[in-house]
Amino acid sequence: MPCSVAIFGGSFNPPHVAHVLAIAWVLATEDVDQLLMVPTFQHPFAKPLAPYEARVRMCELAAGWLPRVTVSRVEEELGGESRTLRTLEHLATEHPDWKMRLVIGADVVLETEKWFRFDRIAELAPPLVLGRGGFHAPGVPSAAVPSVSSREVRARVAEGDWDALRALVPRPVLEYVRAEELYRS
After folding, report:
1. pLDDT, tens digit, for every residue of 58-85?
2. Which residues contact 145 (CB under 8 A, 6 or more apart)?
3. CA separation for the pair 37, 42 (Å, rounded)
4. Is 44 in a helix, a strand, or coil?
């Protein structure tokens, strides 16, 4: 019997409450047996990222405690620039019994023409599109997750705005960011 697996990839630089709520929404509303949280190994557009090990650890702190969630290091195993198509093709080869779905936000739907071979991506892992505050995509229900961005989180960390961050970042992730002095400059 095929295993239904939701694939939720991203930079997670850092993971925030909207990521956790997206995961909870998928687990609560979709027929999935497992959710793979896949941190980007190397951003294809050379965006500066916190070290990969730190982002994996923050993903574990943010969502690893949720049932049926696995933080995957598949993009590290593949090495080089992270590409969704390459990752999905690898997972499909490694796990032929998986029926994959790709978790994306409504904001991403508006940019799929920029993705390499999104048609093939959608074939391998038909998208599960989540509404996101501040974005509207045709046929997507209203916001399932609040409008929180990692960019905003990094800016608030750099400003030392710890009070505001308590509402944006899971507590263990925020403690890790402080202890490791991430995003300070």
Report:
1. 999 999 889 999 999 999 999 888 789 9
2. 18, 21, 22, 25, 105, 130, 131, 132, 133
3. 15
4. coil
